[in-house]
Amino acid sequence: MKIETDTPELLSGIWRGKTIGSPLTIMIRNHDWENWKGKKLSKKTIPRPGHADLAGMLKYDVDDIQSIIERASARETAAKVAAGSIAKIYLRCFDVDIIGHTVSLGGVAAKSFPDDYNRLRATVEKSDLRCADKEAAKEMKKRITAAIENGDTIGGVVEARIFGVPPGIGSYAQWDRRLDGLLAQALMSIPSVKAVELGEGIANSSLDGSEVHDPIFYSRQKSYYRKSNRAGGIEGGMSNGEEIVARIYLKPISTLRKPLASVDTENHKAVKAPYVRSDTAIVPAAGVVAEAAAAWVLARCFSQKFGGDSIDETLRNYNGYLKQIKRR
Ligand SMILES: Cc1cc2nc3c(=O)[nH]c(=O)nc-3n(C[C@H](O)[C@H](O)[C@H](O)COP(=O)(O)O)c2cc1C
Question: H or E stretch including 105?
């Protein structure tokens, strides 16, 4: 929301523009806290369906849901985005970049968007819905207005495109080193995300294998390449050198102005769920969070594979690896 201007402050870990090995501390103040200071808050005892409220109060044995609402809030994604920006700076050294853009909102789908990285980045950053299809974006805005008027909320789909990853990042050797698994966990743990798809994963499940797998080609100039990318750039838990494409499916946010049925946990009476300050559609914001979450995973994988105590050393290892795969 507009009051959340989210200015990160660097508290430790950086000296003259470089990390020095101490923990990198980034603080983002919660301005909402200032608005509440000194005010008496009434006890919250009615859980909202779709939120952490009910399971949280049962698990942590509290009778006031407020502490659950605060800690389970997607405000934590601001920290994710701040940390992800550090990962993005690191990935830039390898010319890796990630774009999270809205491909569907409240059932309105983007019909076309540029494949080219620079054009996609430029159009996405110009759109306040982070949607590269201008016509679809107009319809999406109408959907948001209608949802606000109805006291309802809407979900949608974000696509994260990851450019510049060489083959062989991740591994099939252990389950917890698979790049598909790592990305799925990072993206699925963004609040509201209920499904993660790699490439054409969902459509592929109902096609024949011959229609699904991306045939392999070779030319001296390009080395190994594909003419299609239904796999979304990952095979056998490793990047295959094609663009990595992951889609995340978000449920409509849970706080509704038009309240759903709930129960007052103090007296077990049937009541309506309360409304607390809330957005209507968070899909565009989730695109920014998805970039950060994917950047974190890739930065860890790059650092594990290429090591190094300085960027120059890491780049030597990286360039040596690129030479090695070219020999094949
Ligand atoms: C960037 C972002 C902002 C969000 N803002 C809100 C909000 O204002 N109101 C709300 O009810 N849910 C909001 N959510 C969604 C809730 O955090 C989410 O519905 C809740 O955590 C339960 O979803 P879960 O079952 O996936 O954890 C937001 C999610 C994200 C990613």
Answer: strand 97-105
